[in-house]
Write a structure and sequence with these properties.
This protein has 181 residues and is mainly β. The chain has helices spanning 28-31, 44-47; strands at 2-7, 11-18, 23-25, 54-55, 59-64, 66-70, 77-80, 83-84, 88-89, 96-99, 104-111, 120-126, 131-134, 138-149, 152-155, 158-162, 166-180. The chain has two helices and 17 strands.
Length: 181
C-alpha cells in the first residue's frame, strides 16, 4: 500500500492507494488515541452493547474502489468508494483495512492536537449542481471534486476552515467530510 501526506494547520491528510488484496494494519494509537464513549457522547448510543467498540479518532473518506474493515472475530465490514466518516471501530487491537478492488484509495484525516479530541463528522458527496450547507466553527475537507463557496472555487484535496454559514455548490462530483466539535 502506498501513501502520501498533506499537512494543514489543524489536520494531516494521508492518502492511501492499494491493489486488491493489499492490507494495512492500523495501530490502536492511530485509530483512537485512547478515546472512549465518554469522549464522544453524541455516538455513545452506537457503542452500547459493543464492549470492544471505540470512537474513531481518524476520519476516513473512501474515494476509489473499495475496502473492508477487518477487526477481531467480526465479519468484514465493507467500506465502498463514496462512503466514509465512520465513527467507531471494533476489534481495535487487530484492526486492518483490506483493498477489495484494483486502484482503491482512501483519505485518512487525522486531527492534530496534544490531547485526544473527538471530532463530529459527516460524509459529503454529490454530483455537479448539488448544494450543501456548511456552518461556522467547522471544517470542510474535499477529497475529490470541485465546489464553489463564497464566490471562490476549491478543488480537492483541500481543507477549508468555515467561519460563516454558506451554501456550497458542487461543480464536479465531490467526496469529502464535514468536521466539527
Amino acid at each position: 500500500m502506498q501513501f502520501r501526506r498533506i499537512r494543514f494547520e489543524n489536520f494531516t491528510i494521508t492518502i492511501f492507494t492499494a491493489h486488491a488484496g493489499e492490507e494495512r494494519v492500523c495501530p490502536p494509537s492511530e485509530l483512537t488515541r485512547g478515546l472512549t464513549a465518554s469522549d464522544a457522547p453524541a455516538i455513545a448510543h452506537l457503542l452500547e452493547g459493543k464492549d470492544d467498540a471505540r470512537p474513531l479518532h481518524t476520519i476516513p473518506v473512501y474515494t476509489k474502489g473499495g475496502f473492508e474493515a477487518l477487526g477481531g472475530d467480526y465479519a468484514p465490514d465493507p467500506r465502498p468508494a463514496g462512503s466514509g466518516a465512520t465513527q467507531f471501530v471494533r476489534g481495535i487491537d487487530n484492526y486492518k483495512l483490506r483493498a477489495t478492488a484494483p486502484d482503491s484509495e482512501y483519505h485518512c484525516i487525522t486531527p492534530k492536537s496534544k490531547e485526544p479530541v473527538f471530532w463530529q463528522r459527516s460524509f459529503v458527496g454529490g454530483k455537479a449542481g448539488d448544494t450543501f450547507e456548511v456552518l461556522p466553527n467547522s471544517y470542510l475537507y474535499i477529497a475529490e471534486g470541485k465546489i464553489e463557496l463564497a464566490h471562490q472555487t476549491f478543488v480537492g484535496p483541500t481543507m477549508l476552515e468555515i467561519t460563516k454559514p454558506h451554501t456550497a455548490k458542487i461543480t464536479d462530483p465531490v467526496m469529502g467530510a464535514k468536521l466539527w466539535r
